Amino acid sequence: LLALRGRRHSLVAAASVLADLRPGVPPAPSFGLGQSVEFVLGLAIMMLGLDLRRGEGAAWRASLGTLATTDGAKLLAVGAQLALIVFIAGWYQIESPAFASVGGAVHGDSRS
Amino acid sequence: VIHHLVPKARRLTLFVAISLVSYVLVLGAANAAWITVIVLAFIGIFHLPVSLNARLALLLAAALALAFLRVSPAVTPFSGAIWPILGSILMFRLIMYWYDLKHARKPIPPTWSLAYFFMVPNVAFPLFPVVDFSTMQRTHYDQEPFRIYQRGLEWVMRGLVHLLLYRLVYQYLMIAPEEVADGTKLVRYMLATFLMYLRVSGTFHVIVGALHLYGFRLPETHRLFYLSTSISDFWRRINIYWKDFMQKVVFLPVYFPLRKRGETLALVVGTIVVFFITWATHAYQWFWLRGEGLWSATDALFWAILGVLLIGNSLWEAKRGRKRVLPGAKRSLRDALINGASAAGVFALICTLWTMWGSPTFGDWIDLMRVPSFTLRDGLAVAAVLGTVFAVAVIADLTGRSGGDQETSAKAPAPAFAPHAMKTIAALGVLALTASPYATRPFGTRAQEIAREMRFPELNKRDAKALQRGYYEGPAGGDRPEPGTARTDGRPPDRRAGHLAVRRAGRASRLPRSRDAADVGDVSGRPVVPDQRVRDA
After folding, report:
1. Backbone angles phi, psi at B224, to 5 degrees
2. CA–CA dist B86, B260 (Å, integer)
3. Are A102 and B82 an interchain contact pair (Cβ–Cβ within 8 Å)?
């Protein structure tokens, strides 16, 4: 919403979402869904801000406008399936063991 | 979901941004910066305005310098933990990129180069399918987006099922070689060894499924490989990306120049070269992922036998013609029965070869296969396994599923989205409920115990024993086995700690440290913090 109101706001919003990435802040030992959404959203907002600055907002309006069509329902179905997949992967603790060990080795955290 | 809401022209850029930021989030800024700089340096060499030979020489020098760092942790300026990821990004993708760059009709945009090398799932999966660069570009949003996403979701779900089945095999079917005391146990061991490959197929399904969610409509990585009806069919169905990679960069460049001298010669030489390179690149992959060489007689023998069988099969097919089944074509019961019998035969053959592949030496494998007696009960165990493969293959054939997911052209009419989505949601719901305490309670405590064990990646009895041995034998406990640890190339775990080595050496009191235990720890080879939830330990 901030992004839609103006360019400067969009960049501020993106910067706050991406604040976790500033140098010196150690990455989280586990890579959660919330963090994923946060940084993808941050990147998207930043791109939107840059496009608005160039006066290329029409493509975004068209793209976001599809939410009001059947595409919106389809996107909801895709999101629901993704949520179930994330839930199952979490429930069964399915993750790449290499991922866990790489993260663990880098961050020195316990993988209990 | 957010990616889809971005205008189509910006989606690839967002994919690259997501990928690059993922490396920072997972590995930390410093390690991500090292990976980025090294990979960019390699990409940069490809695009230098110098002669082809000069670029090749530079690439070779850079690769040798990197290999030196791989074996010299003391002088490496970054964490050793990033090697598997870095190796996974560069080791085959550079070859594929080089090939496609050489044959490209127009310059490759930088965004595409970055998208190819930094694909986001790679940060979590060092064992990565060899994605074809041109296919990746060609199939990006070449169909209606939701059709691509839906297929990706179905593949991710299939990958999860494979990984859960793998966990079942690991916990309940896999036994230690020293437990192989009769024919039935041998059948169980051989079956489990082959089924452990489900981990690789599951992982690849998840990776390629995830890439579909960003619009990359890549082909299948595996196609019902347990139901292969010939050796050629097996080669075409298991790790399809590897087969395609070999065909593109090795087989065809050898085959076409030799074809003038005869089809048979070209086919035989091309296949020999493919299998030689496949064997060598497995060792090469092992080096980059684990920092050590992989040289074993059984490994070489496995690829040699597979190569010889494939040549024989290909020549037979070339002479008699390959029987292709068109999608949707009506199958007779007779054809289905023949296919079922072939699938059972190939399954038995590959199980045998796979067991040999996992043995440290050929002698160990012979010892393993030499069971004291083979009773009627053992025969029934063989019949049960092969009968199941036969029945599933027949059913798959009659229902038109034996070909796997049929590749559809970009212009094919899209199937309805809703039924597919509903089916997947229902299947995922069942999967989510399967191990729920509410769902398993009516089936008793054993079912609840299994459900719990499915949820927690624990060591099976064999690895728990190896862990205990490690504590007592290693100077400081040594590396610890990690639940579900398999070799990164999908080979079954090495059995160096098994009774076979002991039996042959006659030194039961001084068991050599398990290769499994050496295989484990984190991917960089560092010891990892052991998981305390060791089953029955």
Report:
1. 40, 55
2. 41
3. yes
Give dist(CA B503, CA B181) in Å, integer: 13
Q: Is the predicted pLDDT of residue B165 greater than 70, yes or no?
A: yes
Query: Hunting for tokens 């169909």 — which residue is that?
Result: B143
- A-B contacts (CB, under 8 Å): 181
Q: Strand runs (DSSP E) across B319-385, as ranges?
A: none
B418 touches chain A (CB under 8 A): yes
Chain A residues lying within 8 Å of B156, measured CB to CB: 85
- pLDDT tens for B84-124 read 899 999 999 999 999 999 888 888 999 999 999 999 999 88
- Assign B196 a pLDDT band (cuts: 50, 70, 90): very high
**Is A98's CB within 8 Å of B125's CB?**
yes
Q: Is B7 close to A62, i.e. CB distance below 8 A?
A: yes
Residue B38 near residue B65, CB atoms below 8 Å:
no
Residue B94 corresponds to which tokens in the numbers above? 């550079």
- Taking CA–CA distances from B163, the nearest residue in chain A reads A94
pLDDT of residue B80: 84
What are B184's two structure tokens?
């039935």
pLDDT tens for A57-103 read 888 888 888 888 888 999 999 999 998 998 888 888 776 443 343 33
Contact state of A98 with B157 under an 8 Å Cβ cutoff: no
Higher per-residue confidence, B370 vs B371: B370
SS (H, E, C) chain A: CHHHHCHHHHHHHHHHHHHHHCCCCCCCCCCCHHHHHHHHHHHHHHHHHHHHHCCCCHHHHHHHHHHHCHHHHHHHHHHHHHHHHHHHHHHCCCCCHHHHHHHHHHHCCCCC
Mean of per-residue pLDDT scores for chain B:
83
Q: Quick one: pLDDT band at residue B407, thresholds 50, 70, 90? A: low
- A55-62 long-range contacts, CB within 8 A, separation 24+: A59/B7, A59/B9, A59/B10, A60/B6, A60/B7, A62/B7
Both tokens assigned to A47: 């791109």
What is the pLDDT at residue B329? Answer: 66
With beta carbons under 8 A apart, name residues in chain A contacting B2.
37, 40-41, 44
Residue count (chain A):
112
Q: Is the pTM higher than 0.80?
A: yes
Q: Which residues of B6-44 are buried (b: 16+ CB within 10 A; e: fewer)?
A: bbeebbbbbbbbbbbbbbbbbbbbebbebbbebbeebbe
If you measure CA to CA, which chain B residue comes closest to A18? B21
Check: CB of residue B75 under 8 Å from CB of residue B69: yes
Contact assignment for B124 to A98 by CB distance below 8 Å:
yes
Alpha-carbon dihedral B21, A61, A5, B20, rounded to 10 degrees: 10
ipTM over 0.85: no
Q: Which residues contact B455 (CB under 8 A, 6 or more apart)?
A: A91, A92, A93, B435
**B residues 229-268 closer than 8 Å to A (CB):** none
Q: What is the per-residue pLDDT across A48-69, written as a single tens digit (0 to 9) for each?
A: 888 888 888 888 888 888 888 8
